[in-house]
Amino acid sequence: MLSIKNLQAKIGEKQILNGIDLQVNAGEVHAIMGPNGSGKSTLASVLSGREDYEVSGGEVYFLGKDLLELSPEDRAREGIFMAFQYPVEIPGVSTINFMKTALNQIREYRGQQALDAVSFLQLMKEKMKLVEIDQSLLNRSLNEGFSGGEKKRNEIFQMAMLEPKLAILDETDSGLDIDALRIVANGVNKLRTKNNATIVVTHYQRLLDYIVPDYVHVLYKGKIVKSGSKELALELEAKGYDWIKSEATVA
Amino acid sequence: MSKSNQVLEEITSKEYEHGWTVNLEADEAPKGLSEDIVRFISAKKNEPEWLLEWRLKAFRQWQKMVEPKWPNVTYPAINYQDIIYYSAPKQKVKPTSLEEVDPELIKTFEKLGISLTEQKRLTGVAVDAVIDSVSVATTFKEKLSELGIIFCSFSEAVKEHPELVKKYLGSVVPMTDNYFAALNSAVFSDGSFCYIPKGVRCPMELSTYFRINAANTGQFERTLIVADEGSYVSYLEGCTAPMRDENQLHAAVVELYTMKGAEIKYSTVQNWYPGDKQGKGGIYNFVTKRGLCAGDHSKISWTQVETGSAITWKYPSCVLKGDYSVGEFYSVAVTNNYQQADTGTKMIHIGKNTRSRIVSKGISAGKSQNSYRGQVHVMKRAANARNHSQCDSLLMGDQCGAHTFPYIDVENNSARIEHEATTSKIGEDQIFYCLQRGIDEESAVALIVNGYAKEVLNQLPMEFAVEAQKLLALTLEGSVG
Q: Residues of A with CB below 8 A from B394's CB?
């Protein structure tokens, strides 16, 4: 589904990604871990098409298409969804209205008809139930005055609505208490199918107790320095990142 | 150049949608302004002697006045002798029914999306159509007159209801109120008149559409709305003009008068030609709008969406004379390219327990300048007056300006005045968030701007709200920097 080869990226003159190789297949969950400043969020941003970063080398293919050639909105329409670490507020625009606009633009791109009000409402009700979110939250201005938990839950609701092929969760666990974490993780798990894939970007292992990854990759200084199964995450939790750092430096 | 800036360039080069002209034969006055022209206009309209005298008095006063220089706008001096003060689409006789109206005229309004054919109107909106300076057709007149509602052109009101016109003309905006009001009083050619009798709730939206068509013409219309005790009316005003290289002057006067327990809701979607991308051409919109809450418990509510004009100078105001009267002002003013807007309101609290509310949302893009100018004045006997003002500015790009000039004068200690102001920019983060959900940049800006202006747009009647939303999006799409 997603094939990243030797991806390099910089912001201004500062090189942040130094050659990432990653292969993600349908049905898989990959966790990207690593210490602060290792390039985790940069990777997520580059994949979603944020302009602040300049890709200086390598290639990324998504479902056979050259991802780096696509605009951010077309990437979304092709099926990439990013759950933001810091979802932004848009005053005066309800989540419902926002989703209606997004969904219909995506459908238009795919040559599908816009959903009528009744079908949209039906879809919304179904997804609300799935991710356990209250309609009163969706009627409010997008993320305005939301708690940290509400913002993240709203991200997962949007993900449910848009049914992406590849979801990238960028530090979704940050700022969540354990109950909120469980609800968010439950939502993500319910949305897993053999046809879609998830990349979980996180600093801590605890999210991976709930969203169990098939693969764990450790990112350090802009490179994947170690890959393994979910046990690797537990090892990191026990030992911290220092042994990875020294191993990487020696190598 | 960032992508947003490119989009800004592309979008702002969009053509003004209503920039066409129609070949209408016009009956025009010679250029320039003098007592003779005032007499000419009055004679053209077969006016009674008292109205001619009123006009001449206004003209003589105007000659002694000077153009106001305090607004935060700049423009070359206007040559008042280079303007045609009267232009009427040529019609042999005044039409008595729609069938007799020049088909070209009907077509003109259909181009604007306004059907004058009554059966075609969707949800009961009665329309008075004013082209250049003359009212050409009023719909639903008979249905309204069954309720005793008078809704007609101003000239017709002068003929049919002189006692009402004589009583209320200039009662809210005195002829010498200001330079442009005096000019209008001297040369106004037509407009709309409306009277809602005691206890009647007008069952449909009343609407006037103004269109400037002829070149070198000033448009000076006058609207007078009188709501008798306990009545209610909602009134809509829309305006467009063709694209022309030279600037055209529009100096209207709108007077609203509410008696005890009456309410007038006045909504405007102003889309005069704003000039081109270089700032050439466009309408100078110098308008005096004021409402008088004469009776106790009366209410006047102004809602405006200002997107057009090269220069806007406009302060729809409320004089809260009756005890417990209420004044409201909801405004969205958008400027792009080289547009300049100096707009706001005045809330004059005279009666006891009077309340006013101001919500102003300015949006500036391109190289435009957008100023809010508002006055809240609490007079000595206005015990327990209350005002809440909220002025927000949204900036797009880095070459525009937003300014706020609030004036607060309080002469009574029991008053409670609150003023809130914010300034914000559309963030790259907001745009990116939308893009990542599959929404393109133009739609993202439209979404964000409409969200920002929602509080005001919600005040508009349904028929207008949709139009206003589209207009906002059209004026601003992609103007992010």
A: none
